[in-house]
Write the structure tokens for this entry.
Amino acid sequence: MSFNNLDTLYRQVIMDHYKTPRNRGKLEGDHITVEMNNPTCGDRIDLQLKLDDGIVQDAKFEGEGCSISMASASMMTQVVVGKPIEEALKISKMFSDMMLGNELEDHDYDLEDLGDIQALQGVSKFPARIKCATLAWKAMEQGVEKND
Amino acid sequence: MTNMESVRKQFPILNQEVNGHPLVYLDSSATSQKPSSVIDAVSDYYKQYNSNVHRGVHTLGTYATEGYEGAREKVKDFINASSIKEVIFTRGTTTAINTVASSYGRDHLQSGDEIVLTKMEHHSNIIPWQQIAKATGAELKYIPLQEDGTILIEDVEKLVTERTKIVAMTHVSNVLGTINPIKEVAKIAHKQNAVIVVDGAQSVPHMRVDVQDLDADFYAFSAHKMCGPTGIGVLYGKKSLLEKMEPVEFGGEMIDFVNLHDSTWKELPWKFEGGTPIIAGAIGLGKAIDFLNEVGMDNVEAHESELVSYAMEQMNTIDGMTIYGPKKRAGLVTFNLDDVHPHDGATALDSLGIAVRAGHHCAQPLMRELQVAATARASFYLYNNKQDVDLLVDGLKKTKEYFGDVF
């Protein structure tokens, strides 16, 4: 028995984000908070976004969940901070397509532009785990909607 | 003694590979697998005598009615109800409990009354009571859990008072494996003129249940956890109580006379079975009961008891293993492994062909009580064997190594 196929899912970079999450904590000052659950498995994220002048000024999260959900949250905050909100949403759409195993050619970004996020590509081969990976992104989208 | 290996061979689904490994199915508490006899019985009904029941005079309709009502007889004997009037077919345990809450609960609860539950209930034995409590002004009280996941009879005696109208309790916890002392609790409830509603989803499939001996007022269970099809379950209720209860679903099948402004209901149990019933499901459940009777429920219980003891003993040898619940338990083990989130663990096991459940097991209040967000659960049934346990333990060791190494 070996876990060769698992390596597609649990790349070292995912484990790194899980063990040493970036942007974990609480934002000070004015910000938007979104709490989101994955009711089927109990994953929970508490995402805080600071949105000003059309830009994601800062993002932090707290929560509880599996390595995929927490690593994805860490990576998401890392990539969206400093980006225009429009751009963050475009990346989110691309991420969603990546999870669904769709072609990514129509998107404005290359996988390489997304940094660590590309490590999550393997999740698309594990349908039961896609919801874990998308939780933080859905929270981000909801936060942006709240801002409108 | 029944040969359990020959029992296992009657489950065609178990004879396959998943992700390149022989399937090790350890999620029977979620739903059990079905033996060929049950699958064939459902298929035969559709192929040979599919017809509606209780109506018309044609031959196939008679066969279908015999199959459907014959299944009710089998259920009656299986749980030792005193009459078929006490056996109502429902969609499952959830519908059965909702029926009691919506009918009996609505008529008997008022502001100031209390419903007593335990902190180990499945959502399906919490939310119907929350809803009826909100509608009637009644209050929910929870029996606390001991460190080992059991309840104390003294706590039951303290919490069940003259204000208590309903005690709702699971017979076997789907997370902890705890077997609750239903007979004693029923006595305490009856002393206060309360009724006891028992969630039997995890007990009826695995042990001999005698509703009269337990003196349960209502008892609910699902076919799909006991080798039967999905979509059908049973509400047992004492005739004296059911007779006074109003149906909750109105329409075809359940009526006696229908006038323009008023109607009357059929007698028990049919007044609770509005609409065309779950005919194929009932026939499948009947066959599942035949199957379990052939194996013998005492054998099923003894087999699972041996397996679960072995599993706990083996799993406890793994470093960083936490097992929840009491030592004396039904055939399931809920656990967490240090440094491995249960979803990650379940995915790793799945890649080895081992199916376990991960998550909150539809028992969020209990998860909070245990102070965990999620757990993993391996649950056993009559078709599992020691090799399944060995493969699980081996898989868990590899999983721990894997997640340890990646860091």
